[in-house]
Design brief:
10 helices, 82% helix, rod-shaped
Length: 279
């Protein structure tokens, strides 16, 4: 019964032209709705998929102990992520040897990772715009309805007023419905994107912490290795020069004394050399 009454009302509106006006206003609202989706929800959804893919790939690289070069090529898939990566994980040392870097929780904040094609202000203004379109259709329908009233024959022209009110109320219904729908799903899409950005931030923190520790250990180990190598070379030179001096001195001594002196001179250097090599 309700569906039949709605269809009868639409046929009555179409007979006097009011349905055509309603169709125009509803078509404009729907076109605006789908146009808004292409500027907000679609870029946000695509960016969320990229962030999720980058996070999963970074975790796989970290599990294989891959270097930062492979990670740098991976994050280059997204311009905003690559910029955040260079500002935090990949930051270079400054002139004083300190890391001139942002913390990952700052560099990978969700607003910093929003895609360039996403219009945040338009997303926030969409519910009000849909409501405004509905109100505009309401006033247009009321104008059409009251304009068709003939004061001399008010009873006969009441149909035009009812048709105009149908245009008004139907446009208001569509506008308010789109506004509520957009408000709910816009928050859902943004929340899902923020969650993807935070999980990527957690993965970047793992790379950031590992970067500092591994670099410091690698630098310290290289310095110790170079210093030990220099000590070893110096000991070898000192040993050779001491042996030459000892041989020249021992040429005039007895064989037993010469052997004792040789052992006395060379044994400490051999033990010291073995200790350095063992270290």
């Amino acid at each position: 019964m309700i569906i039949e009454s709605v269809l009868q009302s639409l046929r009555a509106a179409a007979s006097d032209g009011h349905w055509r006006v309603t169709s125009v206003f509803i078509a404009v609202q729907l076109l605006f709705f789908f146009g808004m989706i292409t500027c907000t929800w679609i870029p946000l959804f695509q960016a969320r998929k990229r962030l999720k893919s980058i996070r999963v790939s970074l975790r796989e690289l970290r599990s294989r102990d891959a270097d930062r070069e492979a990670a740098r090529k991976l994050v280059a898939l997204d311009q905003r992520v690559a910029r955040a990566w260079s500002q935090s994980v990949d930051a270079q040392r400054d002139m004083e040897g300190k890391f001139d870097a942002l913390e990952p929780e700052v560099a990978f904040e969700p607003p910093r990772l929003l895609p360039a094609k996403y219009y945040m202000r338009l997303d926030a203004a969409a519910p009000g715009l849909f409501t405004a379109f509905g109100i505009l259709g309401t006033f247009a329908g009321l104008y059409i309805g009251f304009d068709g009233i003939d004061p001399a024959a008010a009873t006969e022209s009441i149909g035009g007023l009812i048709g105009g009110m149908k245009v008004a109320f139907l446009n208001s219904l569509v506008g308010v419905s789109l506004s509520i729908f957009w408000s709910c799903f816009s928050r859902v899409f943004r929340h899902v994107f923020d969650q993807a950005a935070r999980t990527l931030q957690e993965e970047a923190e793992e790379w950031f912490d590992g970067r500092g520790l591994s670099d410091e250990l690698r630098t310290g180990f290289s310095s110790v290795t170079a210093a030990l190598q220099e000590v070893k070379c110096s000991l070898e030179d000192l040993r050779e020069s001491t042996e030459r001096s000892s041989e020249a001195l021992l040429n005039g001594l007895s064989p037993k004394l010469a052997e004792s002196m040789k052992v006395l001179v060379t044994t400490p250097f051999e033990q010291l050399t073995r200790s350095v090599e063992a270290f």
